[in-house]
Automatic annotation (TrEMBL):
Stretches assigned to the HTH iclR-type domain: 2-67
Keywords: DNA-binding, Transcription, Transcription regulation
Keyword Lipid metabolism: no
Claim: DNA-binding is one of the keywords in the record: yes
Alphabetized Gene3D superfamilies for the sequence: 3.30.450.40, Winged helix-like DNA-binding domain superfamily/Winged helix DNA-binding domain (1.10.10.10)
InterPro entries linked to this entry: GAF-like_dom_sf, HTH_MetabolicPath_Reg, Tscrpt_reg_IclR_C, Tscrpt_reg_IclR_N, WH-like_DNA-bd_sf, WH_DNA-bd_sf
Protein name per the record: Transcriptional regulator, IclR family
PROSITE patterns: HTH_ICLR, ICLR_ED
Residue stretches making up the IclR-ED domain: 68-251
Amino acid sequence: MNQSVIKALKLLNYFTMETPELTLKEIANKAEIPKPTAYRLLSALESSDFLYKTKENEHDSRYRLGLKLLELGQIVSDQLEIRTIALPYMEELAQEINEVIHLVISSQDEATYIEKVDSSRALRLYTRIGKSSPLYVGSGPKMLLANMSRERQEEILSNSELYRLGDHTPIDKQQLMEQLETIYQDGYAYSIGEQDADTTGISYPIFDSRNQVIAALAVSGLSSHFEGDNLKLLKSKTKQSAQTISRQLGYRGPDL
């Protein structure tokens, strides 16, 4: 990581409950760096909303922590909360259907798998806790992408070369956008062999108390299991679990 970035971020550690506001001079003294250097680093943090300036004059400036830290802290809090709440229901679902269950969130323009419950079947999957993948590959990631605004979708997809994971063949963006619209309208995502050969995935959205989609509950297994009446059962059970988790997170939307 760039040393200037590291130095700037370290300055945030000097703000505490006891000292929520510090002057430029106080920060420079604590960091043992010249005031011009401290001012440059603090200005970078201020421009990114990590700090805000409460007072400035020709002799000194005063700073407080900015709202960007509150926003990031809320994201971390939500992730910890959703894992704690979702895991028992994921385990219960895995017991009922004996397929692999994932909890997927979006993070930095990618999909990240933050929880997983395995099945008793011998099945090797591309996914693992902490693994990230493109938001356009797999049922869970696509569910998240489908529930973003059109502008956000365009932004994410324009920053990526769209290709299939297995054979790296190109993906048609227009077809993908149409598929995302279908997912949004249907309320679930369905994928075949997009991350692992001979596997199928289905996903349903998880909502928070603000009625926003914050995660996807995904079920994956051998494609031969996702057919006929068993597919209907898997969809019904997965949807029910996703709705239950959403309720536990405070969602009170029309589908519940």
